[in-house]
């Protein structure tokens, strides 16, 4: 006789979730989800796992069998998981990338993108009187995060969305996919697109610690504009510092990181987590 359960015996254990990427050691997600698990007294774990692209399909097949209920996905797997998922939400398909997977009890993998949700939730929380229809939005950058920002701004009712990117073809591509409300500006004329803009977003990695600064001139920026940066290291980027000096409302990018994590946590662990000052402090420690 053996004490091991037979294959038909149901194995019950606390739910597991995590984040996969490469590299992954820098991820703050385990700290964030670990904080929420503790706060709500939930028995469960959230792990950071380095996964090579050639192992991605195997990992997604095996983890549900090992008790995982879902994953966050980061670079370089955000696009590839779409081809491996059974169900892809419309917004993930439109953005062309997923950051949240749910391993459903029926064995299907559900892929979603919550970056756009996190972006808007951050603005709503930290600039409650922000009105997406107050005037044109100006998005600097055309990478993966910019696509999520564009989708969510259009969803929120922005009537004109101006976009610029160092590699112009990427902003042209976004316009081709997202439609007539977009206007492409040349990178060399990026300052001009701030004229009359009500919402200004840096969705490039410029301004991040160790990277070059964003050099778009802010002379045309109105003091009525709301300015936000996806970069959150440092919290107050040179863009936000200068915009604040010019009288603009500014919102840092940390709240987006916190809010984009909430839907996944709720689906995996059954509790909608609150994003508040205490949660922010956990990531700033
Ligand atoms: P990505 O797909 O690699 O795109 C990078 C963007 O930055 C592109 O528009 C790229 O322009 C631009 N860029 C990079 N180096 C540049 C340079 N030297 N000069 C001009 N433009 C440059 O990255 P991503 O996923 O979109 O992320 C963009 C930033 O957002 C990162 O800093 C990331 O950490 C941050 N982010 C924050 C959150 C949050 O929750 N706050 C969420 C997602 C992302 P080209 O196309 O010309 O290369």
TrEMBL record:
<keyword id="KW-0521">NADP</keyword>
<dbReference type="InterPro" id="IPR041121">
    <property type="entry name" value="SDH_C"/>
</dbReference>
<dbReference type="Pfam" id="PF08501">
    <property type="entry name" value="Shikimate_dh_N"/>
</dbReference>
<feature type="binding site">
    <location>
        <position position="232"/>
    </location>
    <ligand>
        <name>shikimate</name>
    </ligand>
</feature>
<feature type="binding site">
    <location>
        <position position="115"/>
    </location>
    <ligand>
        <name>shikimate</name>
    </ligand>
</feature>
<feature type="binding site">
    <location>
        <begin position="27"/>
        <end position="29"/>
    </location>
    <ligand>
        <name>shikimate</name>
    </ligand>
</feature>
<dbReference type="InterPro" id="IPR011342">
    <property type="entry name" value="Shikimate_DH"/>
</dbReference>
<dbReference type="Pfam" id="PF01488">
    <property type="entry name" value="Shikimate_DH"/>
</dbReference>
<feature type="binding site">
    <location>
        <position position="74"/>
    </location>
    <ligand>
        <name>shikimate</name>
    </ligand>
</feature>
<feature type="binding site">
    <location>
        <position position="253"/>
    </location>
    <ligand>
        <name>NADP(+)</name>
    </ligand>
</feature>
<dbReference type="InterPro" id="IPR006151">
    <property type="entry name" value="Shikm_DH/Glu-tRNA_Rdtase"/>
</dbReference>
<protein>
    <recommendedName>
        <fullName>Shikimate dehydrogenase (NADP(+))</fullName>
        <ecNumber>1.1.1.25</ecNumber>
    </recommendedName>
</protein>
<dbReference type="GO" id="GO:0004764">
    <property type="term" value="F:shikimate 3-dehydrogenase (NADP+) activity"/>
</dbReference>
<keyword id="KW-0560">Oxidoreductase</keyword>
<dbReference type="Pfam" id="PF18317">
    <property type="entry name" value="SDH_C"/>
</dbReference>
<comment type="pathway">
    <text>Metabolic intermediate biosynthesis; chorismate biosynthesis; chorismate from D-erythrose 4-phosphate and phosphoenolpyruvate: step 4/7.</text>
</comment>
<dbReference type="InterPro" id="IPR022893">
    <property type="entry name" value="Shikimate_DH_fam"/>
</dbReference>
<comment type="subunit">
    <text>Homodimer.</text>
</comment>
<feature type="binding site">
    <location>
        <begin position="165"/>
        <end position="170"/>
    </location>
    <ligand>
        <name>NADP(+)</name>
    </ligand>
</feature>
<feature type="binding site">
    <location>
        <begin position="141"/>
        <end position="145"/>
    </location>
    <ligand>
        <name>NADP(+)</name>
    </ligand>
</feature>
<feature type="domain" description="SDH C-terminal">
    <location>
        <begin position="253"/>
        <end position="276"/>
    </location>
</feature>
<keyword id="KW-0057">Aromatic amino acid biosynthesis</keyword>
<feature type="binding site">
    <location>
        <position position="90"/>
    </location>
    <ligand>
        <name>NADP(+)</name>
    </ligand>
</feature>
<comment type="function">
    <text>Involved in the biosynthesis of the chorismate, which leads to the biosynthesis of aromatic amino acids. Catalyzes the reversible NADPH linked reduction of 3-dehydroshikimate (DHSA) to yield shikimate (SA).</text>
</comment>
<feature type="binding site">
    <location>
        <position position="99"/>
    </location>
    <ligand>
        <name>shikimate</name>
    </ligand>
</feature>
<dbReference type="InterPro" id="IPR036291">
    <property type="entry name" value="NAD(P)-bd_dom_sf"/>
</dbReference>
<dbReference type="InterPro" id="IPR046346">
    <property type="entry name" value="Aminoacid_DH-like_N_sf"/>
</dbReference>
<feature type="domain" description="Shikimate dehydrogenase substrate binding N-terminal">
    <location>
        <begin position="19"/>
        <end position="101"/>
    </location>
</feature>
<dbReference type="InterPro" id="IPR013708">
    <property type="entry name" value="Shikimate_DH-bd_N"/>
</dbReference>
<keyword id="KW-0028">Amino-acid biosynthesis</keyword>
<feature type="binding site">
    <location>
        <position position="260"/>
    </location>
    <ligand>
        <name>shikimate</name>
    </ligand>
</feature>
<comment type="similarity">
    <text>Belongs to the shikimate dehydrogenase family.</text>
</comment>
<feature type="domain" description="Quinate/shikimate 5-dehydrogenase/glutamyl-tRNA reductase">
    <location>
        <begin position="137"/>
        <end position="205"/>
    </location>
</feature>
<feature type="binding site">
    <location>
        <position position="230"/>
    </location>
    <ligand>
        <name>NADP(+)</name>
    </ligand>
</feature>
<feature type="active site" description="Proton acceptor">
    <location>
        <position position="78"/>
    </location>
</feature>
């Amino acid at each position: 006789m053996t004490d091991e359960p037979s294959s038909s015996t149901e194995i019950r254990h606390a739910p597991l979730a995590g984040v996969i990427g490469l590299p992954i050691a820098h991820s703050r997600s385990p700290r964030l989800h670990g904080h929420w698990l503790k706060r709500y007294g939930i028995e469960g774990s959230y792990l950071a796992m380095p996964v090579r692209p050639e192992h991605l399909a195997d990992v997604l097949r095996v983890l549900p069998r090992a008790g995982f209920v879902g994953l966050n996905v980061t670079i370089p797997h955000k696009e590839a998981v779409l081809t491996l998922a059974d169900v892809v939400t419309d917004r993930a398909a439109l953005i062309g990338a997923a950051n949240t997977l749910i391993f459903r009890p029926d064995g299907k993998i559900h892929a979603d993108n919550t970056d756009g949700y996190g972006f808007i939730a951050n603005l709503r929380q930290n600039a409650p009187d922000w009105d997406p229809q107050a005037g044109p939005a100006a998005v600097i950058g055309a990478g993966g995060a910019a696509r999520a920002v564009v989708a969510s701004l259009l969803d929120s009712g922005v009537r004109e969305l101006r976009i610029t990117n160092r590699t112009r073809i990427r902003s042209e591509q976004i316009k081709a996919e997202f439609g007539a409300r977009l206007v492409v500006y040349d990178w060399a004329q990026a300052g001009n697109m701030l004229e009359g803009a009500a919402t200004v977003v840096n969705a490039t990695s410029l301004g991040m610690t160790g990277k070059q600064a964003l050099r778009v001139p802010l002379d045309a920026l109105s003091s009525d504009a709301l300015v936000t940066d996806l970069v959150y290291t440092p919290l107050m980027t040179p863009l936000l510092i200068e915009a604040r000096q010019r009288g603009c409302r500014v919102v840092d990018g940390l709240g987006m990181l916190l809010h984009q994590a909430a839907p996944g946590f709720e689906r995996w662990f059954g509790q909608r987590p609150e994003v508040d000052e205490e949660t922010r402090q956990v990531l700033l420690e």
